[in-house]
UniProtKB/TrEMBL annotation:
Residue ranges annotated for the Response regulatory domain, each copy included: 6-125
Listed name of the protein: DNA-binding transcriptional response regulator, NtrC family, contains REC, AAA-type ATPase, and a Fis-type DNA-binding domains
Sigma-54 factor interaction domain boundaries: 156-385
Lineage: Bacteria, Pseudomonadati, Pseudomonadota, Gammaproteobacteria, Alteromonadales
CDD domains: AAA
Length: 468
């Protein structure tokens, strides 16, 4: 059966062209010939070839190989990935060696042996195909990085003194390679800040790889982060690159680092110290180069206890520490953030961009927002969709001003009524259940997921599906 392979033979000897074509056509899907080297640029700029067989000498009596060298260089100038096999005169080994120094892959001498030609061309075709694949993967990767970076360009709204200080800190820390630990309650913008850091860093053109350590099961931790070789364990059907290596050159965002069990913290520390990782089932460690940004909603005090977190790992992660205050402690930010999301969602849902009335403004500023900016964003989205009045009112935000002080003082979240909604569509019920559970657990994803009987990853997926 013919193999997939595109070959070009360039020689001024028509007999060689005919013999070569006859031989190789039996083996490969596409064989072209060219008897004038001046036509090479047109051939290779209009068609792709996995391998090119190029004669060293053109014209009667030529044996210096000068023209072969000239066309070899020309082809590599046009496409440096070209795989070129030189066709040399009998005994022209010196010339062939010289050609290989200039970038040729292999050579065959005339008169040739058919088996040798087929073997040499087969290897060259495979090399050409893998170069081509590498090139297109690189290009695809570049597009993905660009797309990912565009997605990361959500604006950070910051007017409070606390956030302005953090922004100054970010400006200074971002271009360094210092490891950064971001602390803050759920929904305070830790991931947004991490992405912003990456954008402002010298690694911005490379990948931002986010790993939710709270969502990776213990059994999958090593294979996810370190990768594995085919056959390393039951179900490992292919080699798989780990996330540490996949983030090479870029930023690795370790989210929910505080949820990592102590024994896995030890493994992570070793890997980060050695800057090398051995995929499961491999014998050799491979180096990686990442800047580590981590985040957790665990308080600083808890992080500083040995029972909760390894102190040596903490020192490695927190060269620079960023403490994101909860929204209730940066009241100056509430109005501009609300305005930002009003504008965003009014456009998205094609609604007029309305103002907040006075009471609504006071209410959103004095609400405790246990789910922080994520909760405010969600409240604004709902208000934009449902509001019927010409300005947004307290009612649109479902803020119970009467209970506010009570909530603040007693640090409790009032359960929402639990009766079923009138609409018994399962999707609607699921959204309501998730929304209530989030509020009940102050937007703590781990606790909410536990109550709902979901994994954190499954909860995130559903939140995204329902726009929560
Ligand atoms: N300063 C800000 N300006 C505008 N939007 C913000 C800001 N901070 C956070 N957000 C938005 O709030 C939501 C929650 O942010 P993010 O996911 O970064 O928080 P987090 O602290 O990482 O949450 P979690 O701990 O639950 O993973 C996102 O939609 C984010 O875009």
């Amino acid at each position: 059966m013919k193999k997939e392979g595109r070959i070009l033979i360039v020689d001024d000897d028509e007999d060689i062209l005919t013999a070569g074509k006859l031989l190789l056509k039996r083996q490969f899907s596409h064989v072209s010939t060219c008897n004038l080297p001046e036509h090479i640029p047109t051939f290779i700029s209009t068609q792709h070839f996995d391998a090119i067989l190029l004669d060293m000498n053109f014209g009667p009596g030529e044996s210096s190989g000068k023209q072969g060298f000239h066309w070899l260089k020309k082809i590599l100038e046009i496409n440096p990935q070209s795989v070129i096999i030189m066709i040399t005169a009998h005994g022209g080994v010196d010339v062939a060696v010289e050609a290989m120094k200039l970038g040729a892959t292999d050579f065959i001498s005339k008169p040739w042996q058919n088996e040798k030609v087929i073997a040499t061309v087969s290897t060259a075709v495979l090399l050409g195909q893998s170069r081509c694949e590498t090139q297109s993967l690189r290009a695809a990767n570049q597009v993905l990085v660009q797309d990912n970076n565009q997605l990361n360009q959500q604006e950070i709204i910051a007017q409070s003194d606390e956030m302005l200080k953090i922004q100054t800190l970010l400006q200074h820390a971002a271009p360094t390679d210092a490891n950064i630990l971001i602390l803050g309650e759920n929904g305070t913008g830790k991931e947004l800040i991490a992405r912003d850091l990456h954008q402002k860093s010298l690694r911005a053109h490379k990948v931002f790889m986010s790993v939710d350590l709270g969502a990776i099961s213990e059994s999958l931790f090593e294979s996810e982060l370190f990768g594995h070789k085919k056959g390393a364990f039951t179900g490992a059907h292919h080699d798989r690159i780990g996330r540490l290596k996949a983030a090479d050159g870029g930023t690795l965002f370790l989210d929910e680092i505080g949820n990592l069990p102590l024994h896995l913290q030890a493994k992570l520390l070793t890997i980060l110290e050695q800057r090398k990782v051995t995929p499961l089932g491999a014998n050799e460690a491979v180096p990686f180069d990442v800047r580590v940004v981590s985040a957790t909603n665990i308080s600083k005090n808890d992080l500083k206890t040995d029972a909760c977190f390894r102190q040596d790992l903490l020192f490695r992660l927190n060269t620079v520490e960023i403490n994101l205050p909860p929204l209730r402690k940066r009241i100056q930010d509430i109005e501009p953030i609300a305005q930002y999301f009003i504008s965003l969602y009014s456009k998205k849902y094609q609604k007029p961009e309305k103002e907040l009335d006075n009471d609504a403004l006071i209410a959103i500023k004095s609400n405790s927002w246990p789910g922080n900016i994520r909760e405010l964003r969600h409240a604004v989205e709902r208000a934009v969709i449902l509001s019927q009045t010409h300005k947004f009112t307290c009612h649109d935000f479902q803020i119970e001003t009467v209970n506010k002080n009570h909530i603040e003082k007693h640090n409790v979240i009032k359960d929402e009524p639990t009766e079923l909604p009138q609409d018994l569509n399962l999707e609607v019920i699921e959204k309501q259940a998730i929304s209530q559970a989030l509020k009940k657990h102050r937007y703590n994803i781990s606790h909410t997921a536990k109550e709902l009987g979901l994994t954190r990853a499954a909860l995130y997926r559903r939140m995204e599906k329902h726009g929560l």
